[in-house]
């Protein structure tokens, strides 16, 4: 029965033209790439940027079964096999991977968001929000830029040039921002955008932007997109909707920080459920 179910799983994957990495091929399909197998594509790791090859099942062969035993497995062996299969399964789950990462770095996490004068390469930050992983607001400030706010940006965040006349400049606040972010792990939704606009603003005020390059940046958009859609990009509003959350204070720096945190907590929570299931199975094994 197990062989029949495995064969059905393989044939469906072949019919659907699915491709997987070596680890999942071995654990779920009991297959490996042929010696001359062609790589179907590469999947980029969201953590280290490395590229992992994936293969179509048509380019794979079943693993060789060796040392088959005719002795029926004991209940303990059956449970051990179930635990191993579950471990292999959850290792492929983005939520489980993220939960482990999030747990390790939790105390050092900051979440930031910016509102800017626009989307062009010279756009500057006009609002910055920073919170920690518990949701505490550490920084919330608007800034007077050296360029005008674009009409398209105003339609999104509703901040006008006149609203910033009495606000401090980025130059006046940069030391405090540096102090808050020093030695921290920075999460942002589409972090490349925020890092670029913060760098632009430093340069506009003749400030060195090297400190930004020294920060440890992580992109919440990559985690959300891969978790929900197996893609590289999705908007924050989409991620909020997929998490079944309500969007609060949209397009304010602190509001978007809070929503980014809620999305990350949602994904981590799903990963924790898998971790808890694994703990329960391991507890059963210890009690046998």
TrEMBL record:
<dbReference type="Pfam" id="PF00929">
    <property type="entry name" value="RNase_T"/>
</dbReference>
<protein>
    <submittedName>
        <fullName>3'-5' exonuclease</fullName>
    </submittedName>
</protein>
<keyword id="KW-0540">Nuclease</keyword>
<dbReference type="InterPro" id="IPR012337">
    <property type="entry name" value="RNaseH-like_sf"/>
</dbReference>
<keyword id="KW-0378">Hydrolase</keyword>
<dbReference type="GO" id="GO:0003676">
    <property type="term" value="F:nucleic acid binding"/>
</dbReference>
<dbReference type="GO" id="GO:0008408">
    <property type="term" value="F:3'-5' exonuclease activity"/>
</dbReference>
<dbReference type="GO" id="GO:0006259">
    <property type="term" value="P:DNA metabolic process"/>
</dbReference>
<dbReference type="InterPro" id="IPR036397">
    <property type="entry name" value="RNaseH_sf"/>
</dbReference>
<keyword id="KW-0614">Plasmid</keyword>
<keyword id="KW-0269">Exonuclease</keyword>
<feature type="domain" description="Exonuclease">
    <location>
        <begin position="108"/>
        <end position="273"/>
    </location>
</feature>
<dbReference type="InterPro" id="IPR013520">
    <property type="entry name" value="Ribonucl_H"/>
</dbReference>
């Amino acid at each position: 029965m197990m062989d029949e179910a495995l064969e059905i799983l393989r044939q469906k994957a072949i019919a659907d033209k699915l491709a997987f990495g070596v680890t999942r091929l071995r654990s779920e399909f009991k297959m490996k790439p042929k010696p001359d197998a062609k790589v179907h594509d590469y999947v980029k790791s969201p953590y280290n940027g490395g590229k992992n090859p994936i293969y179509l099942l048509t380019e794979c062969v079943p693993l060789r079964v060796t040392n088959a035993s005719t002795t029926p497995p004991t209940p303990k062996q059956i449970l051990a096999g179930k635990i191993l299969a579950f471990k292999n399964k959850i290792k492929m789950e983005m939520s489980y991977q993220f939960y482990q990462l999030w747990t390790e770095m939790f105390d050092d996490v900051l979440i930031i968001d910016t509102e800017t004068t626009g989307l062009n390469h010279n756009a500057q930050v006009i609002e910055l929000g920073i919170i920690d992983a518990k949701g505490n607001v550490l920084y919330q400030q608007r800034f007077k830029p050296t360029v005008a706010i674009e009409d398209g940006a105003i339609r999104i965040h509703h901040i006008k040039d006149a609203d910033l006349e009495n606000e401090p400049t980025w130059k006046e606040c940069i030391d405090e921002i540096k102090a808050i972010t020093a030695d921290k792990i920075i999460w942002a939704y589409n972090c490349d955008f925020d890092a670029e606009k913060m760098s632009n603003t430093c340069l506009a005020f003749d400030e060195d932007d090297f400190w930004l390059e020294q920060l440890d940046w992580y992109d919440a958009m990559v985690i959300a997109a891969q978790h929900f859609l197996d893609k590289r990009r999705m908007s924050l509003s989409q991620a909020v909707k997929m998490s079944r959350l309500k969007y609060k204070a949209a397009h304010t720096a602190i509001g978007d920080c809070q929503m980014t945190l809620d999305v990350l907590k949602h994904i981590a929570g799903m990963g924790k459920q898998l971790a808890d299931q694994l703990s329960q199975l391991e507890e059963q094994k210890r009690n046998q």
